[in-house]
Structures are given as C-alpha cells and as structure tokens.
Amino acid sequence: MLPQVAHEILALTRDPDADLSDLSSLIYQDQSIASRVLHISNSAAFAGMERIDSLDMAVSRLGMRLLSEIALSVSIEKNIFDIPEYRAEVKWLWQHALASALFAKEIGDLLRLNGEGLYICGLLHAIGKPVTLLALKDLPAEIRTGLTKEEAFLLVEEYSVSVGTIVTRQWKLPQIIQDTNFFYRDYEQALRHKTETMVTYLADILATHAISPEKLSEEAVLEDPVMEKLGLSSEARVEVVQFREHVRQRARSMDI
To answer: Helices marked H in 111-127 — which ranges?
Structure first.
C-alpha cells in the first residue's frame, strides 16, 4: 500500500491553500521520515552555510515545494523500496526513480508545465518494478528459493507495467500519474496527458543515461525522437542532458 503520509503529501501538493505548517505537521507524524528529511536537508545538495538543526528550520529554509518532494520521496523509499533480498537491484531502481523525478521536473519547468506534478510522475513512473519484487518476496518459500535473481527480474520486466497500472489505480492516484505510468514506454498511444507522458519517457531515458551511461549514451538520448516531439531546441536538449550532474548529486543525497 502507498503510505498514508505519502497520500496526504500528494493531497497537499494539489491543495492551493496548503501551507508549510500543514506539511511539517504531516512529517512530524512519522519520526523516521522526519529524521531522514532532516538528514537530507543537511546534505551538500540542499544545505546552505548554516546547519539545519530542526525540522522547523528545514521547512523554513527549503520551502513547500522542495520539502514536499523530499518528504514524499522518503516516505515511498521507506515503504516500497526496502527489499533486503534484492538490495543492490533496488538501490539502482531507487536511484533511477529519483533521477527520473528530477529530470521530469526540469523538463517540465523548461516547457512551462507543472514541474511539481511531473516530479511525482517521474518518481512513480516505474513503481510496478519494486511492487513486483515485493510480491515475489512474499511468495511461498518453496517457490521463492527456486527463483534466481535473473528469473525474478525477467518477471519484473514482463509484469511491472501491468502491476504499476493496478496499484496506481488501487491507490487512487491522480489520472495523470496513472496515464504516464501505463503509457510512458509507448507515449504515442496516450489519449490523455500525452505531453506529460512524453516528458516522463524522456526523464526515464535521461535517468538511465545519468546513472548508467554505459547502458545509454548521451548521443542516443540527444537523437531520440521525443526531443523533437516536445519541441526542445538544440540548446534546450543539451541543457537537459547536462542537468545530469545536479541529478547525480541530488540522487546521492537521497540514496538508500
């Protein structure tokens, strides 16, 4: 299940009347999340010259938008990406989810779309992968012990989109998150939120390049047809790709 705190943070991000006190009250409900948020706030990627010693200071320093992104990410990491049986693989999935979120937000800002909403689309676009691994972990022992990691990840690749579609619907997530989750690999088929779905696809391949450049080269990313379909100029394409250093730093600061 999507954590209740995450549900409530998502609701706050869509509430124009929400303020920082609402967000800090939510974070305080879970001390493990509160302490993790405070730790991340003091990382090199976020902290200024002065150390942040309290959640109230973090709220004041980082602001509503950034703090909600951190808190949502921490809540999802804690509850969905904590799978010791697949620690190394899940670490990569988490880094990729974070990088996708950051790239989606950056592209959204460039295109004057809702960058905050796209951050969430990027973060959750492949949520079916860890959820599928969680399901495999809960299989009866006699089945699970005979399943190699290679076989497990073949199942993840085969079923993760379907699983992601089911869980985003069960969690009653906004339609834009459901659509980008289901169609990002084949964005031409999206009947709604097509631009956001293309952004999510681009964020996905940018994240792969940023985290594992041996899997996807800069040239391949720059030449992907989605760049032209989104109307990104040559300068904007290079700018987005070069955002990878910031993404790597942010992803490391929020790593498992």
So the answer is: 115-124
- Residue 151 near residue 88 (C-beta atoms within 8 A): no
Q: What is the pLDDT of residues 24-80, one digit of tens each?
A: 888 888 888 888 888 888 876 676 657 888 877 887 777 888 888 888 898 898 889
Q: Are residues 155 and 207 in the same domain?
A: yes
Q: Residue 132: is its pLDDT beyond 80?
A: yes
- Domain count across the chain: 2
For residues 115-152, b (16+ Cβ closer than 10 Å) or e, as one string? bbbbbbbbbbbbbbbbbbbbebeeeeeeeeeeeeeeeb
Non-local (6+) Cβ contacts of 226 within 8 A are 187, 198, 201, 202, 205
What is the Cα–Cα distance from 123 to 181, expressed in whole angstroms?
Answer: 10
Q: Which domain-ending residue is among 80, 104, 138?
A: 80
Contact between 165 and 178 under an 8 Å Cβ cutoff? The reply is: yes
Which residue range(s) make up the domain with 62?
A: 1-80
Q: How far is the C-alpha of 224 from the C-alpha of 243, rounded, in Å?
A: 17
From the list 45, 193, 42, the residue with the least C-alpha distance to 120 is 193
pLDDT of 67-126, one tens digit each?
888 888 988 988 899 888 888 889 999 999 999 999 999 999 999 998 778 999 999 999
3 state DSSP class of 249: helix
What is the CA 224 to chain-centroid distance, rounded?
22
